[in-house]
Amino acid sequence: MKKRIFFYLFSMCCTFIVNAKNIDIYPTNWWVGMKTNSIQLLIRSTGEAFSSADVLINYSGIKVLKTHQFSNKRYLAVDILISPDALPGNVSIEVIQKGKKQKINWSLNSRRPGNGTLYGQGVNSADFIDLIMVDRFSNGDPTNDRVKGMRDQSLDRNQMYDRHGGDLQGVINNLDYLQGLGITTLWFTPVMENDMMNRTEHGYAITDHYKIDARYGGDTKYKELSNQLHQRGMKLIFDAVYNHFGLYHFLEQDQPENDWVHRWPEYTQTNYREQSLFDPYGTKSDQKKMSDGWFDKIMPDINQDNPYMANFLIQNCIWHIETFGIDGVRLDTYTYNDLNFANRCNQAILNEFPKMTIFGEIMVHGVANQAYFEQNNMDTPFKSNLPSVVDFQSLYYGIIPALTQPFGWTEGVNKLYYTLSSDFLSKNPMQKVLLLDNHDEPRFFSVVGENAEKQKIGFQWLLTCRGIPQLYYGSEVLAKGFKAPDGLVRADFPGGWATDSKNAFTGKGLTDDEKSTQDLVRKLANFRKTSSALTTGKMMHYIPVDGLYVYFRYDATQTIMCIMNTSNAQKEIDFQKYDERSAGFSSGKNVITDENFSLSKKTSIPAMKMWILELNK
């Protein structure tokens, strides 16, 4: 009789402990042996509300520190501590809904090997980045062009703002091309889920931070790509977005509280004025509008002062790096974030991945304005710990005016000279990411009037100046276009679709100018890989004279002389004028054409040409 009563009571208890349905947990897993071992779990029910804030975890090495229930009873936050001696395994987490215990399975995993060597390696001046919009590069798997149940079902390559079908398999299929071009590192615009109604091709309206978009191939394909890159000795950059997410993100559609994003009495857009953050005469209202205003009505502005939201973002970035084997992090819209939060997040990433490269999108005007947001040599009340930036100043006030303005005291190539001369403001100019164009900027070829020679000069500067060069997919074959009205800056890579008549991967259908520009990039980028002067050397430049700009990259074993003629007439080169760096050398070999020059003789460089000479004794 006693046995039957015991069995009955045991059975009754079991009916109250069932495997959870319609419950998600973020982060979706964690790892043993992490420095970040104090984790805040966000538990969300998409069904019944939690009737109690009580959470039970009976797992050796995990301690529940605190739980919190929000006004939206479908959410719980659970602070846990993972001890150094915890072992990998399946963790059972029990929560209560309507008096019933629900069991959630959560994984505690072993870390991937090779932090700092096989991943988390960082990106440096020896690398060459290619920025790719996955939807516009290559369609390797047409079966995922549309995914049932997702809001955006568009698929029309004739419409620039519809989806076109590019995916991660398309990138994998063309890794030989990218590596052969001299690329060492791939950076994608965000590949996380963007389940929005339209305009999902760019990736910046994230709706789930813990899912890779199924239209790109999902988590499995992203891991495959990462593995293949690292097997080739290449690297992967993650585009992180802290400032905003998509309107259909579950944290907006089903808010834990009303303060996880910035709320205004009526829609308020950012003023896009970074000056308000450091202006000694600025107002707090302007600062607030800059940092808390929304980018767009479909992109809620994240409130990073909310500690739960802040933890969610920081943990997700660490999770993404460890899960997918990331080597560098690019931080979107950096100037619009709460800067104290940004410092905290940067430090958390570097604590876990000491060799990680972090660079911010600082799309501002003015070298000092840009330097304010990075590690700098300025005495200001706020000090940023951001290691690196995308160097828009050397684009806006450097190479563009150098090739589009007549030479003058403050115009033309002198602007490039002035801008680079301001590197004294930055802690490490060699970590700045150089660019000619990207997904938000006009194609450089269009900016310089579709002049192939100017485009070639741009690439020669990009691959020889200090910093980390970044290509934007397709510019190597003279992709053109402005942001408006046609949006061609995000056009498809030729050859990425089976029906394309032109194929930049194979060279089919390319014009002579397209092919010669692609060849120049390939030759110079691969030369750069083994050039110590260009990858890690110092820089010296001379004041430009009448449109002629000369600079050197050098170290103890190699000297590279770069001669840029931005005028409309040929210019005489007297090598003896540059003897601070040319002394002791007798000749120079053009690394593109293989032509040799005697440094004891004067020569002339044609109009609108650039030479890159490796000096020899």
TrEMBL record:
GO terms for biological process: carbohydrate metabolic process. GO terms for molecular function: hydrolase activity, acting on glycosyl bonds. Residues 1-20 form the signal peptide. Residues 131-528 form the Glycosyl hydrolase family 13 catalytic domain. The keyword Hydrolase applies. Keywords: Glycosidase, Hydrolase, Signal. Gene3D superfamilies: Glycosidases, Golgi alpha-mannosidase II, Immunoglobulins. SMART domains: Aamy (SM00642). It comes from the Bacteria. The keyword Signal applies. It holds the Pfam family Alpha-amylase. This is Alpha-amylase.
